[in-house]
Amino acid sequence: MNYCRFILEGKTHYGAVEERGGELWIVDLATAPEEDLAFRLEHGRATSWSFNFEPMPLNAAELLPPVTPSKIICVGRNYREHAHELGNEVPAEPLIFFKPPSSLLAPGGAVRLPRVSERVDFEGELALVIGRRARKLKPDANWRETVRGFTLANDISARDLQKKDPQWTRAKGFDTFCPLGPVVSDELDLDAGVALETRVNRELRQCGSTSDFIFSIPALLSFITAAMTLEPGDLVLTGTPSGVGPLKPGDRVEVSVAGLGVLANTVECDSD
Ligand code: MG
Predict the structure, then answer these.
(1) Which of 35, 64, 93 is where one domain is finished?
(2) For the chain (length 272 residues), average pLDDT per consecutive 10?
(3) How far apart are CA 37 and CA 242, in angstroms?
(4) At a CB cut-off of 8 Å and minimum separation 6, what does 49 contact?
(5) Separation of CA 141 and ligand 1 centre (Å)
(6) How far is the CA of 20 from the centre of ligand 1 (A)?
(7) Cα 25 to ligand 1 centroid, rounded to whole Å
(8) What spacing in Å lies between the alpha carbon of 52 and ligand 1's midpoint?
(9) Count of domains observed in the chain
(10) How much distance in Å is there from the Cα of 76 to the middle of ligand 1?
(11) Residue 90: its pLDDT value, please?
(12) Are residues 156 and 23 part of one domain?
């Protein structure tokens, strides 16, 4: 099932999403997958809803980030060409860092450029949504039992602060620096390689394939869960392909993967 999270009549809902006539539609209010703690926490174990729902186009809904993670784990330099474009070596083992949940931004929301940075980059990424608690996974474990699905993310990065600060907490962690969504899907065929594209003002800037990952999904999950327990709803951002670049006020940045829709966000100066 594909689902989104959105506001309807002042309340938060999950919606089942289907493609109809080439467009994504919210066709029903979603029932809760048993393994998805985020669902259960917010909606109990409901299997039906008390009022009729009229299908609506996804892009007409007031969308929210589709999950409420306890943590967001990002993988740096997981595409060879991106490592090289920033002058870095291809890493011998995964490089991971956090973004705080407070950095999440809904589809359609505005990325705010902080005054303390002079260069803020887009990084389109495929994100894994964790579906069940996982710790100390073996590299040969069936990763599909752990991953509920996939969604789109933009690992917005204050590049100058990333170079200046010994830790990337600030550079990666500003409010609005993690656009996420619009849908979570379990229907992607990762084995075939999934094409990920990023556009800025409609111009294609990134075009990568998950078949170019340096570290596979099971290798990443094994590495991460050797250190920390993953909880349902947690996110793993799998790295960005080459082509990253700076954003300026007024830009519109779009990350897309066939079957996951388009994650579109605008850019503005932080007014505070
Ligand atoms: Mg990244």
Answers:
(1) 64
(2) 88 88 86 55 48 85 94 93 78 94 98 97 97 94 93 98 96 98 92 93 96 94 98 95 96 96 96 79
(3) 34
(4) 29
(5) 25
(6) 32
(7) 29
(8) 41
(9) 2
(10) 5
(11) 82
(12) no
Question: 145: which 2 tokens?
Answer: 């039992």
| 77 and 160 both lie in a single domain | yes
Structural domain harbouring 98: 72-269
* Ion ligand 1 contact residues with beta carbon within 5 A: 123, 155, 240
* Residue 217 φ then ψ, to 5°: -60, -50
Q: Is 141:170 a contact under the CB 8 Å cutoff? A: no
State the CB neighbour count (10 A cutoff) for residue 51.
6
The alpha carbon of 27 and the centre of ligand 1 are apart by a number of angstroms equal to: 33
Pull the structure tokens for residue 221. Answer: 């999950």
| Beta carbons of 21 and 58 less than 8 angstroms apart | no
- Compute the distance between CA of residue 202 and CA of residue 262 in angstroms, rounded to an integer: 12
How close is the Cα of 123 to the center of ligand 1, in Å?
6
Nearest Cα to 254, choosing from 139, 124, 160?
Answer: 124
Q: Look up the pTM and report it.
A: 0.92
Backbone phi and psi for residue 174, each to the nearest 5 degrees, phi listed first: -60, 150
